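Model: You mentioned two targets. I'll fold them one after the other.
Researcher: Yes, keep them separate.
Model: Target one:
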Amino acid sequence: MFRLPNLSVHFFLAVYAVIALLPFGIIVLNSFKTRSGIFGDPLSLPDPTTLSTAGYQTLFASTDFVLYIGNSTIITSVSLLFIIGLGACAAYGLLESKTTLSKWAWLLIIVGIMIPLRLGTVGLLELMKGLNLLNSLIGLICIYVAQGLPLAVFIYTEVFRRFPKELIASARMDGLGPAKTLFFIVMPLTRPTTATIAIFSLVPVWNDLWFPLIIAPDPNVRTVTLGVQQFIGQFTVDWQAVLAALSIAMAPAFAIYALISRNFIRNLSAGSIKG
């Protein structure tokens, strides 16, 4: 039986959850409505007079939306893999190294967190052109990895700094090198940190419109967010198709987020190290 304070906390959390999820529910509901139903009563459920799947029919008939979903999934997955892998290696290396160079590298990482990558869009565009990476998934992945690495290194460094030194010393005595110590001893015990970094990096990559528009506007490498833009014209907007596209685009992000969140909570309750 919950005490009164616990009931009040759960009540406010439930209210907050409803407020947070309400916009997503409205998007999904209105994706199954006619245009008049969307603007007539956006908060109502679809009825026989407003029920329509025209948005989904337009979406799959006039665009290659499955390709866009695949492109976004590849970009996000590979970017997260490199952000986590390189971020852990860099953080562990900075802690192991006591040289002046490592201190300057740490300073550059802090600066990288404070300065948005979009400020260097012109330079990035010239760099991608020089490397022949325009209109390619690899070009976008490189940009997102560079964008997410500073925060990942910062978080990993703070967690690794408080990691029990006895475990690392024991691994070294057993003959494990730095790489095996990191990936077989340290990383498994800091999975909540990895989940946190993945959550922080997932949404900016999946939802980004700026770099796909500038670096990779080609139809073959379009992402979900860029694919939705073709239904938004200067004078007219196909709201049925836009809402249908957003409803489908939200599903993979929600699934990944839910999976990571469960892993995060499960590892915290299992008694992972504090970070």
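Model: Target two:
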Amino acid sequence: MNIQHGDKISVLYVFIDASNVWAAQKVKGKMFDFEKLKNFLKNKYNAKEIAIFYYTAYPANGTRDYSLDEKHKFFTYLKKGLGFVVQKKELKRIVIHSNEGDSVKEKGNMDVEMTIDALNNIDKYDIAVLFSGDSDFLALVSYLKNHHKSVYIYSSKNNISEELRTGGDGYIDVLTIEEDIWGRELKYRRQK
């Protein structure tokens, strides 16, 4: 089903929270094929133009016992191969002190960057698609709708807040999309 606003051909901006997408991919057992996903969205919303922003945080060098080269090659593919805007930052490492000893927690929330990009580009698009399930985005969704933007939420049933699921112009569970948007099977690293 294509979503059209009358006979108008739209400009579509897509904002992808990588951690939300990762949760859906783990459930499906497959990676998104981002080229297929881009084409699916462009056709679904009858978009003459599409811009896709991808937000991710990655581990600092030396914090993993495996190479991060493949992750950075993937970011380069999204940017140079598919024309995505890739917003990335290193995971913040926070030392937690407790009676049991020190531990390190990693944090890499990209909600602010996503919101800033959605607002800075508000005059460039008619339709916004958010790949996130975080209820914190309800304020952004409401703001965009109040500025005459259509907003659609993509997430999965186990990773969507009720507020966000019902707050936009539509909610799509990525696990139920019938078109082929999936790529290769997920491979997991062996535990040492």
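Researcher: Noted. Anything on target two?
Model: The chain has a mean pLDDT of 89.
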